[in-house]
Amino acid sequence: MKIINVGNYQELSERAAKIVIETVQNKPNAVLGLATGSTPIGLYNELIDDHAKNGTSYRKICTFNLDEYVGLEGSHPQSYLYFMRQHLFNHIDISPENTFIPNGKAEDMMKECERYEELIKEKGGIDLQILGIGQNGHIGFNEPGTSFSSRTHIIQLTESTRKANSRFFSSMDEVPTHAVTVGIQTIMESRKILLLVSGQAKMEAFKRLLSDEIDESFPASVLKLHNDVTVITDIAFDN
Ligand code: F6R
């Protein structure tokens, strides 16, 4: 893992945007894996600014989001589809038909998981996967204990993840109990991975990521087995 330590969140967002923009410029039909949550919002703002100022085009870019809550319509303000439209898709020239997010309202969720995996393959696999990290080490919604060989699947969210995400809902009861997430093996098949780790709340997770541990009880530790991972963090550490 290559670790880039920056001074603050703004710098983290700019460094991450540089990597995404280079990917898009070098391969205008690249396949990007995208994350939601607080961490990549600054990155998405930088991409929007760059698109407006420099005209970087996403016309042929295809995106796959990591996850979606089960049971929320895409029109629900806390759905990840809504999030992506609001924070990125509505502000760049990407074609809506090239943006993929698992359907949390599919009638047959097992089939939906298979369909999503097939689609990723059909589009040639992920060139650059953007990841955040949960305080418990989750990547996507792959909670501790998820098999490293997992593919897109349904997962029961841990209470700690539901609590962390309840800040976006009006009450804890409204936070969905399940999510559909791209699996760990699927993430590991991405050609390049960019992990963003921001804020003191992620300190413990970051320390664990730097240790020698590679174990399913800490999902992000699998990234140490990938040959092209860049971690950008605004957490001060000694290396
Ligand atoms: C979201 C996702 C999650 C988040 C993680 C960190 O698509 O895959 O793994 O990246 O929960 O969330 P934030 O950035 O809100 O701290």
Overall description:
With 239 residues, the chain is an alpha/beta fold. The chain has one domain: Rossmann fold (3-Layer(aba) Sandwich), CATH 3.40.50.1360. The chain is 31% helix and 17% strand. The strands form two sheets. The protein has a seven-stranded parallel sheet with strand order 1-10-9-6-2-3-5, with helices on one face. It has a three-stranded antiparallel sheet with strand order 4-8-7, with helices on one face. Helix 1 crosses helix 2. The longest helix has 18 residues. It is globular. Bound molecules: fructose -6-phosphate (F6R).
Mean pLDDT: 96
CATH secondary-structure class? Alpha Beta
Derived from helix and strand composition plus strand pairing, the structural class reads alpha/beta
**Strands in their spatial order, largest beta sheet:** 1-10-9-6-2-3-5
Oligomer class = single chain
Strand content: 15-25%
Count of distinct strands: 10
Bound ions, cofactors and other small molecules, one mention each: fructose -6-phosphate
Overall morphology: globular
Q: What's the story with the biggest beta sheet?
A: 7 strands, parallel
- Summed up, the helix count is 7
CATH architect. name: 3-Layer(aba) Sandwich
Helix content: 25-40%
CATH topology: Rossmann fold
Give me the strand/helix succession.
EHEHEEHEHEEHEHEHE
Low-confidence regions: none
Cα radius of gyration in angstroms? 17 Å
Rounded to the nearest angstrom, the distance between the terminal CA atoms is 12 Å
